[in-house]
Amino acid sequence: MLQLCLSWLGMGPLTASPWHLLLLGGASWILARILAWIYAFYDNCSRLRCFPQPPKPSWFWGHLALAKWQCLASKGTSRLDMFEHISLMTLDSLQKCIFSVDSNCQESDSKYIAAILELSSLVAKRHCQPFLYLDFLYYLTADGRRFRKACDLVHNFTDAVIRERRSTLNTQGVEFLKAKAKTKTLDFIDVLLMAEDEHGKGLSNEDIRAEADTFMFGGHDTTTSALSWILYNLARHPEYQERCRQEVQELLRDRDSEEIEWDDLAQLPFLTMCIKESLRLHPPVLLISRCCTQDVVLPDGRAIPKGNICVISIFGVHHNPSVWPDPEVYNPFRFDPENPQKRSPLAFIPFSAGTRNCIGQTFAMSEIKVALALTLLRFRILPDDKEPRRKPELILRAEGGLWLRVEPLSAGAQ
Ligand code: HEM
């Protein structure tokens, strides 16, 4: 499966640079992690640590589906598939943060975003067709050809951004990046361009492309699934939804603008509890796998021998009734910091755990909090008539989409 996911990064055995081979071998995460720390660090004082400085006060608003929802729901309640709308929002904001490009994909078609969506669905489809795991067979199929075409489009886009940025760097020198750092408009490509190893060697264009594309790929579907199921759980529990809304309204009371600042993110305890409980009940990533580097002795004395690959069910861990009483019940108070539970830190692992856990979790939690807070300020989210059925794919989806009803708050008050 790892190879299927990596194949779209352009990492065939013939094209792989030593760096790519390291990534395949599981070592490049060290670099990626260092970069993530640098990225979080440089922006320490900005308004939203994980996002580039908005060029306009309405930057994030512009990257949320909310303006579109307002339009769709202008005549009352609108029935919307959350996955469809939210995935465009997460892709839009990722493209902005990684490349500083405004895709405007929520208003009009974007070929690049369409290609990323196509790649994600093709990888999920191929995952269920083990006989097509062999590249040479897959590329003979119509899907394989679509996959190659979409890959080319995505790679060409990333290559063009990197080439252009490198040429600016060559002509203007690092001063150009320093100036961007001062105005907090560095993006992920800039950070990768500046990265050097201990011998002062930077990354090749191919390395940068692989890192940037990994973030696009790993960051959009997961956050989309998380936000969609959070809205679903809040729709089913209007009392929690209302309490979250009041918390946000209270936080922004007496402010000129409805922007969420970086420090605000720590001031939304109940909203955070609701997010965590949804990540428990509906974890976006259902399974992870690990190869045992040593014999692992289980509590009953049996041992998993070194060298075996174990699949760990995040969904199973989160629904273990001996740790989570009534595991199917949505109860945000399980995460009440005022009432800490005697649970293992490994009982809740939506972002996995250990040295290979999710690199983007701070980014994801910040994005989710901002998107949720701004959505609840404007809309009431109501359940659809039909209960969705969970659909486990590479991420947790819903069969036929996750449909909810969205009503502008002003409409409810009338
Ligand atoms: C709610 C949203 C997210 C969830 C639930 C999630 C979950 C996960 C999980 C479970 C892993 C697997 C780690 C393992 O194998 O143990 C992972 C890895 C990863 N995630 Fe996320 N993720 C989310 C958002 C993001 C975002 C926004 C980004 C980037 C912007 C991102 C980038 C990555 C990367 C690069 C890895 C591979 C890390 C490595 O192999 O060292 N993720 N994520």
TrEMBL record:
Protein name: Cytochrome P450, family 4, subfamily f, polypeptide 13
Family: Belongs to the cytochrome P450 family.
Transmembrane parts of this sequence: 21-42
UniProt keyword annotations, A-Z: Heme, Iron, Membrane, Metal-binding, Monooxygenase, Oxidoreductase, Signal, Transmembrane, Transmembrane helix
Signal peptide (residue range): 1-16
Organism: Mus spicilegus
Cofactor(s) required for function per UniProt: heme
InterPro entries: Cyt_P450, Cyt_P450_CS, Cyt_P450_E_grp-I, Cyt_P450_sf, Cytochrome_P450_Monoox
Single GO term (MF): oxidoreductase activity, acting on paired donors, with incorporation or reduction of molecular oxygen
Binding site for heme: C358
